[in-house]
């Protein structure tokens, strides 16, 4: 990316920190990682992808969260507890027979981004697992309480995990 394009993207994200990352990436023909990295530094920290399993194991202890997979064709949302997982046969396997389960290609994770920013008039906090191509594998959002505020216990866990992984 040219330095002028990068500067323009950083200015855009500073002015529009709640913009949908995937939409900005598509419109500007850059990776989602480039958009994440263009957020103001106070809003994002990124750790290495090698921390994928540790991050997922921690998130599995947070309780009800929202996991989002955003593709060009759909936005899938799952609200509930993320199951614990383990690595086997080349995948990080989510270990529960019903609800959210599956097999994640953890070795393609190139970054674990911790993002706190305004979104649609509210504070938001999420972990974005970024793949080797600069795309977002999926995001895990800190849950909300009955008043729609971020859950304080989860926000504390989110920040502690960011401190460990993206110090």
TrEMBL record:
SUPFAM superfamilies: Heme iron utilization protein-like (SSF144064)
Segments forming a coiled coil: none
InterPro entries: Heme_Transport_Util_sf, HutX-like
Superkingdom in the source lineage: Bacteria
Pfam families registered for this protein in UniProt: ChuX_HutX
NCBIfam families for the chain: HutX
Protein name: Heme utilization cystosolic carrier protein HutX
